[in-house]
Design brief:
397 residues, alpha/beta, Rossmann fold, 4-stranded parallel sheet
C-alpha cells in the first residue's frame, strides 16, 4: 500500500513523551496533565486551557533506578514510567492524576510525590480511589472522587474553567476525535483493509499522547486519505486476531504479531480504542460532568472490577469484537507481575476456548519488547493452528 502522508510524523511523535506537539501546547500556556489509566477520564483533562498526556516511556531499556525504589517484582510498566521520570522525561508536566487501580500503580504515583522527579514548581500529584464495581453506589463514589481530586484541583490550583459550558466543550472535543479514530478503525472490518493493525496502533497512540486540538487536523487528513487508499491486491495476512489484555503502548508488539502472519483487527487493551474511543452521550437532564463519570465507569473494563456483571462485560466485549471484526482468534496478553490481568487472562482463556469456541493464545510480556524469538514462535504456532481450523475437518485433528 501507498504510505500514509503523516505516518512517519506520527511515529516520530511517539519517540518522546515531550514531543513536538506537546512542546508547542506548553509554550502556548496550556497545562500539561499526565495520567496512566482509563480510570482518569481523558475528557476531564481536556477542559479549556489544559490537555491530557497519557504517559509512556518509549525506548526504555533499563529500570535500574526505579528497581531500587520498587523492586524488580513490580509491574515493568510502572517501573519504566518512574525510571523515565527520574531521567527527566516529564518535566513538562503540571500535574499527574493517578488512580489506585493496583498497588504497583499507586506506589509509582506516590514516588512522583515523594521523590519529586518532575522539576516544575507548579507540579502536583493527586490519586483517586476508584470503585471496584459498576453499580449506582460505585458511580456516586466515583463522581465524588473525581470532583474532589481532579475537577476541584484544576479549578483551585490553575483557575481552570470547570463550568457546565466548559465540560460540554470537553465532551464535544472528545467525541470529535473519537469519531475520527473510530472511522479509521472501522476499515479493519473489511475483508482486505486499507490499513494495518500496526498503523492503527500508532494512530490511536498519538491521539492519546498529543494535545487533541493539535493532532486532530492530522487525524482528519489521514481519515480522508484512507477513503481512497488502495489496499494490497490480496489480503497479506494468514489470519485475523483481536489483541486483548493489559497495558500495551509499544506498536512494535503489534508489528511483531503481524510479521508472524496475523493482522490485529481490534485492540481491547490498555491504551487501545476499546474502550477509549466511544462517544460520550449526554442524556436528557444530565450534566456534562455526570455524563463523563457515568460513561467512563460504564465502559471501563479493567480487570480490577470484581463484580460478575463487569467480568461478563469484559468477555462479551472481546466476543463482540471478534465477531464484528471477523477475527479468527484472540491473543490475550498480560504485563509481567500484573496480578489482576494474570488472573483475568487464565479465566478469559478458558471461557473463550471452552464456552465461546474462540481460539485463544495467552502470553506474558515485559514492558520493553524482549524475548522476541519466544514470542515469535508462539505467534507463528497460533497462526498455523488458526489456519488448520479453516481446513474442513482440521479442527478435529
Amino acid at each position: 500500500m501507498k504510505d500514509l502522508k503523516h505516518f512517519i510524523y506520527f511515529e516520530d511523535l511517539l519517540r518522546d513523551a515531550r514531543n513536538e506537539l506537546v512542546a508547542r501546547a506548553v509554550e502556548d500556556g496550556k497545562r500539561a496533565l499526565g495520567y496512566n489509566c482509563y480510570y482518569i477520564p481523558e475528557a476531564l483533562l481536556n477542559l479549556p486551557g489544559c490537555f491530557s498526556s497519557r504517559l509512556r516511556a518509549p525506548g526504555m531499556r533499563s529500570t535500574n533506578i526505579a528497581d531500587y525504589y520498587m523492586t524488580t517484582r513490580n509491574c515493568p510498566y510502572v517501573r519504566a514510567i518512574l525510571e523515565r521520570a527520574m531521567e527527566g522525561g516529564y518535566h513538562y508536566l503540571d500535574a499527574l492524576f493517578g488512580a489506585e487501580c493496583c498497588a504497583a500503580m499507586e506506589r509509582m504515583e506516590e514516588h512522583f510525590f515523594l521523590l519529586r522527579p518532575v522539576k516544575n514548581d507548579r507540579f502536583f500529584v493527586t490519586i483517586i480511589d476508584p470503585p471496584m464495581k459498576g453499580d449506582k453506589t460505585s458511580l456516586d463514589y466515583y463522581k465524588s472522587q473525581l470532583k474532589l481530586k481532579v475537577v476541584d484541583e484544576l479549578r483551585d490550583r490553575f483557575g481552570i474553567d470547570v463550568s457546565e459550558d466548559a465540560m460540554r466543550e470537553a465532551v464535544r472535543l472528545h467525541n470529535e476525535i473519537s469519531q475520527v479514530i473510530t472511522e479509521i478503525g472501522n476499515y479493519r472490518k473489511l475483508p482486505n483493509p486499507p490499513i494495518t493493525g500496526y498503523e492503527f496502533h500508532v494512530i490511536e497512540l498519538v491521539s492519546q499522547v498529543c494535545p487533541h486540538a493539535l493532532i486532530l487536523p492530522y487525524l482528519k487528513d489521514t481519515l480522508e486519505e484512507l477513503k481512497s487508499r488502495e489496499p494490497e491486491p490480496k489480503f497479506p495476512f494468514r489470519a485475523r486476531v483481536v489483541l486483548a489484555g493489559s497495558e500495551i503502548d509499544d506498536p512494535e508488539f503489534t508489528k511483531l504479531i503481524e510479521m508472524c502472519g496475523a493482522m490485529v483487527v481490534a485492540d481491547r487493551y490498555c491504551f487501545g480504542s476499546f474502550p477509549g474511543r466511544e462517544q460520550i452521550i449526554l442524556q436528557e437532564g444530565e450534566s456534562a460532568y455526570d455524563a463523563i463519570c457515568r460513561h467512563y465507569l460504564q465502559w471501563n473494563q479493567c480487570a480490577r472490577f470484581m463484580d460478575g456483571g463487569k467480568i461478563d462485560q469484559r468477555h462479551e466485549e472481546v466476543r463482540r469484537l471478534a465477531k464484528e471484526y471477523g477475527a479468527d482468534g484472540v491473543i490475550y496478553e498480560n504485563m509481567k507481575f500484573c496480578e489482576f490481568w494474570s488472573y483475568e487472562k487464565v479465566l478469559a482463556s478458558n471461557i473463550f476456548t471452552n464456552e465461546m469456541g474462540i481460539p485463544c493464545c495467552t502470553i506474558e510480556k515485559e514492558y520493553s519488547l524482549g524475548s522476541i524469538e519466544q514470542l515469535r514462535t508462539r505467534f507463528q504456532a497460533f497462526v498455523e493452528a488458526l489456519e488448520i481450523k479453516k481446513i474442513p475437518g482440521g479442527d478435529k485433528a
